[in-house]
Amino acid sequence: MTLRSRLLFLVVVIVASGLMVLDFVTYTSLRGYLIGQVDHQLPVDEAPMSELLSYCATYAPQACPDESSSGSAIGGGNPTQQVPELLSPGTFGEMFDSSGNSIDALFTGPLTSVPPPPVVSPAVIG
Predict the structure, then answer these.
(1) Which of 18, 69, 85, 119 is the most buried (most CB within 10 A)?
(2) What is the rounded distance in angstroms from the CA atom of residue 80 to the CA atom of residue 23?
(3) Range 61-90 burial, b when 16+ CB lie within 10 A, else e
(4) pLDDT tens for residues 6-33?
(5) Do the beta carbons of residue 91 and residue 105 sit within 8 Å?
(6) Closest to 78 measured CA to CA, from 106, 117, 42, 98
(7) Are 79 and 51 contacting, i.e. CB atoms less than 8 angstroms apart?
(8) 71: closest CA among 97, 96, 45, 101?
(9) CA-based Rg of the chain, rounded to a whole angstrom?
(10) Cα–Cα distances in Å, from 32 out to 21, 22, 26, 44?
(11) Could you list the residue range(s) of the whole structural domain that residue 65 is in?
């Protein structure tokens, strides 16, 4: 093996190792940042979403947002008309009864259709 080929092989190994280290650092940094953003968003959106779900399930399901409105409009006479504007775009909320059955679910965001609800483990609900 010539000196040139050994040096080329060494450079390739060093560059590949550096890229793998950089990939790992980028992944862990981005993951930590995104988890921090969700951790910040959850307490902010909990009260408005809870209020909106309670109102929709109890008083006026027909006046609450549905799949066609994507959470952007609520019918007249609703005391929670400002709630969708308080929620972060893309927020999904679901209300369960004491036995774990879904009562109501809402999605707020600019999407044209409601995405499927996330799968929640029964251990989280109970």
Answers:
(1) 69
(2) 45
(3) eebbbeeeebbeebeeebebeebbebbbee
(4) 999 999 999 999 999 999 999 999 999 9
(5) no
(6) 106
(7) no
(8) 45
(9) 24
(10) 17, 15, 10, 19
(11) 3-125
Whole-number Å distance between alpha carbons of 100 and 110 = 29
Matching residue, tokens 């190792």: 17
Q: Is 1 helix (H, G, I), strand (E, B) or coil?
A: coil
Per the CB < 8 A criterion, the answer to whether 56 and 104 are in contact is: yes
Q: Supply φ then ψ for residue 119, to 5 degrees.
A: -85, 120
pTM tops 0.90, yes or no: no
Q: Where are the alpha helices (DSSP H) in 59-110?
A: 83-86
SS3 44: helix
**Sign of torsion, CA 108 110 112 113?**
negative
H-type alpha helices, the chain:
3-58, 83-86, 122-125
Overall domain count for the chain: 1
